[in-house]
Amino acid sequence: MAEIFPDKEIMYEDEIPGGSHWSMLMRKGTTLRLIDKDGGVNVGMLFYNPTDKLERYNAPDTLKCQHTFKLTKGHCLYSDMGRILCSIIDDSVGWHDTVSGNLTDANMKKKWAVKSYQEQRNDWTLSGEHSFLVELAKHGLSQCDMSANLNWFSRVFTDGEGNLNFDQANSKAGDYVDLRFEMDTLVLFHTCPHPLNSATDYPKKPLIYQIRKAASVADDDFCMNSRPENQRGFQNNAIYHLQGGQ
Length: 246
Fold this sequence. Notes:
Radius of gyration: 18 Å
Strand order of the largest sheet: 1-2-13-4-11-7-6
Shape: globular
Order of helices and strands: EEEEEHEEHHHEEEEEEHH
Structural class: alpha+beta
Number of strands: 13
Largest sheet: 7 strands, antiparallel
Helix content: 10-25%
Distance between the termini: 30 Å
């Protein structure tokens, strides 16, 4: 049940079941807290500029300018225009996947029994690919607009032969990550399984999300000062807002 508290620190709270999807507009100066309710959730996410949807999250720039393979507290998420969509201001997990992509319909059928909506109603099984396509269509976007996504709460690691493996125990019940939005951003997300998850049964892990008021960015802000590139990214945002961008 969604709860709305416009005058409190937590302005909005809701729960998304496992294997579901949603999208919403996050305003500059607000924080999105994602909470792993039961442990083991995977949250695929995409980001777009709502006033110019050609501008979107850029995974390569986000990683290379911050010299990282994972995302955690102190990192910023860059658009393909060199602006910062949001900053990770807190994180109890410590590792979020940036490279594994999305569970496709084809891979889902190889891994798990497919349950249709006609047969199972709300207990049907969805891929991340299908979920993103539904949310993209709500905002006039299509498959060609689907860029590389993040997988919050998930971790991958390499074995001795260089193969990527999925960490089944990366996130525990109650773990969270806080995203402070530095510009208005359209957020698309799903709670479908990670593409490398090897669970026997299709895992349905719920997510709690909260929209919170964010404090102003101070001169000593950890995210802004964690890399010189982030300082330039915040400058790019300042120019964008000066020109009327939200």
